[in-house]
Design brief:
Elements: H1 27-47, H2 49-64, E1 69-73, H3 75-92, E2 99-103, H4 121-130, E3 138-142, H5 149-160, E4 164-169, E5 182-185, H6 200-219, H7 236-250, H8 254-263, H9 268-277, H10 281-290, H11 295-300
């Protein structure tokens, strides 16, 4: 989009009629208005359920083939992608390479705004090359207003590499077309503070990323029931969570659960398999590896 061309028609830039007198509202009225407007994020997620589900399946299939997931964006959109990627290793004990966030401006842009960098599509393409993205990978471009050149450049370059591409935006396809294999539109309407997409657009994007990454990890065998059985046991809180998971699923007391956890090298999934099959740690690890880490399918056999 030409930099002199107005973006005022975009849904994310429009004026919200419900907040026209925002600076005249009482503090409680401001809180209530936010609460009312944020309900639109739930509806937006519901309306995007089919594309969200398709995205989960594509990512899970990529993981099975040795592929990776990349989020790429600028400003708030990019930071949300980095946040979701950073939360995957402690939650699912995945290597940091499996899910990665690429932010325009790099690490410095996490704490200091560098939105001017979003205007260069060549930087997005360069990021794809630098991360050596291939046809095994999935790239999700996040752009609330749909026009971010950095993201468009990245998606175009990723498609050229044969990667599966997904776009997440908060404007309609009639307003902005995005060339991606899957096109997720999260239409939450105009922001309370006109153009401030860190508000509803940011909230609904975080919700979508929660669903996408968690859903993909469920499909990838990182969850048993609703328990994070691949949790990385790296502190007292997580050790306690691990013990509760083992105790709840096996009826072992905490002392017995701790002993089993130690024997499994603090791997909850392996501890459960050892308990249910009688295998030792080495044999259990080998069996999990043969089955791509999917505990459910082993227990159901």
């Amino acid at each position: 989009m030409d930099k002199l061309q107005s973006r005022g028609h975009l849904l994310t830039e429009q004026i919200n009629p419900h907040s026209q007198n925002l600076d005249s509202l009482s503090t409680l009225e401001i809180v209530d208005l936010f609460n009312q407007e944020d309900t639109k994020t739930i509806e937006a997620i519901a309306n995007a359920r089919m594309t969200l589900a398709k995205t989960i399946d594509v990512i899970a299939a990529a993981f099975e083939q040795g592929g990776r997931l990349f989020y790429i964006g600028a400003g708030t959109s990019g930071r949300l992608g980095v946040l979701d990627a950073a939360e995957c290793p402690p939650t699912f004990c995945t290597p940091p390479e499996l899910v990665q966030g690429i932010l325009a401006g790099g690490a410095a842009a996490l704490i200091k705004s560098s939105e001017a960098l979003e205007d260069r599509p060549e930087d997005g393409a360069r990021a794809i090359a630098e991360h050596q993205i291939t046809d095994l990978d999935v790239v999700i471009g996040i752009t609330a207003g749909g026009t971010t050149p950095f993201v468009h450049g990245a998606l175009q370059a990723a498609k050229a590499k044969g990667a599966k591409t997904v776009a997440i935006s908060c404007v309609s396809s009639e307003q902005v077309a995005i060339d991606a294999d899957i096109d997720i539109r999260l239409l939450v309407g105009a922001e309370i503070l006109a153009g401030s997409t860190r508000l509803k657009a940011g909230t609904v994007t975080k919700m979508a990323l929660n669903i996408i990454s968690t859903g993909a990890m469920v499909r990838y065998g990182k969850v048993y029931g609703n328990r994070m059985i691949d949790v990385a046991v790296t502190n007292d809180k997580l050790n306690d969570r691990a013990l509760r998971i083992i105790s709840d699923l096996t009826e072992l007391n905490r002392t017995e659960a701790q002993d089993l956890l130690e024997k499994s090298q603090k791997k909850v999934k392996l501890a459960l398999l050892m308990h249910w099959t009688g295998l030792d740690a080495e044999a259990g690890e080998a069996l999990l590896n043969q089955n791509k880490g999917n505990l459910r399918s082993l227990i159901n056999q």
